[in-house]
């Protein structure tokens, strides 16, 4: 059975040649990601693939050390190499105190988060809290209620009540969606804590930070994923300015 070739390893020769003109970047990789604490003279990239790179380091005491730098998450392909290596460079230089951490001073709400507000939550709330039984409900006949409001509620909740009358999982569906609804909320709390750490690290300020945390509580990963993308773009821009 043939294995799929690594798209980055296939072009490692060119990448090694290109990175040879950026020795400061390789040294930063070795120090920050490779945890090399000894004084370094130089670092050379001797291999790279989608999962990481291997650096040959020369130390000031005359010895050598090979360091494996893992790339997490792995590169999706060759086109992912440049932005990811630039981001890794910025993170390493930030950690080593060589450049300042990029600041995020504005709030951005991604459109993808609207699906949580208008699709995910309505479905979860509907299936978790819709009445499963009504004295006026009959799958074969209309509502007998004299109240217009009750009739409207009956009509709206018919699909949910029909689902609960299906075999096997039907009676358990409200409980399943109830726990799913609250599991999503609990997950959003932890995601909001992660968002708060990003905001604190990147100096958003109280107002912007509060907006990001609140939005994450409501919409979850759509918010912090977009924030991380903005941070990545800011890092790349800062590195490009230095270069």
TrEMBL record:
Indicate whether Nucleotidyltransferase appears among the record's keywords: no
Keyword line = Membrane, Transmembrane, Transmembrane helix
Q: Which domain of life is it from?
A: Eukaryota
* Domain DUF2470 positions: 18-88
Q: Which InterPro entries match?
A: DUF2470, Haem_oxidase_HugZ-like_sf, TMEM254
One family from Pfam that matches here is TMEM254
Question: Membrane-spanning residues where?
Answer: 109-129, 176-194, 206-224
This protein's name: DUF2470 domain-containing protein
Q: What is the lineage of its organism?
A: Eukaryota, Fungi, Dikarya, Basidiomycota, Agaricomycotina
């Amino acid at each position: 059975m043939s294995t799929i070739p690594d798209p980055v390893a296939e072009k490692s020769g060119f990448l090694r040649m290109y990175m040879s003109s950026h020795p400061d970047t390789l040294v930063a990789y070795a120090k920050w990601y490779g945890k090399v604490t000894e004084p370094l003279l130089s670092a050379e990239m001797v291999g790279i693939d989608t999962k990481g790179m291997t650096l040959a380091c020369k130390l000031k005491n005359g010895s050598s050390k090979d360091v494996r730098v893992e790339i997490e998450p792995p590169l999706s392909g060759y086109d992912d190499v440049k932005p990811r290596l630039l981001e890794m460079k910025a993170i390493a230089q930030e950690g080593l105190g060589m450049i300042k951490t990029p600041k995020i001073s504005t709030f951005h709400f991604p459109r993808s988060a609207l699906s949580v507000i208008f699709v995910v939550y309505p479905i979860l709330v509907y299936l978790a809290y819709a009445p499963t039984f009504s004295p006026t409900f009959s799958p074969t006949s209309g509502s007998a209620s004299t109240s217009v409001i009750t009739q409207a509620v009956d009509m709206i909740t018919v699909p949910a009540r029909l689902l609960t009358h299906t075999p096997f999982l039907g009676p358990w569906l409200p409980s399943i969606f109830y726990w799913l609804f609250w599991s999503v909320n609990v997950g959003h709390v932890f995601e909001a804590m992660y968002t708060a750490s990003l905001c604190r690290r990147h100096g958003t300020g109280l107002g912007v930070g509060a907006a990001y945390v609140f939005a994450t509580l409501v919409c979850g990963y759509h918010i912090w994923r977009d924030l991380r993308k903005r941070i990545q773009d800011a890092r790349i821009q800062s590195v490009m300015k230095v270069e």
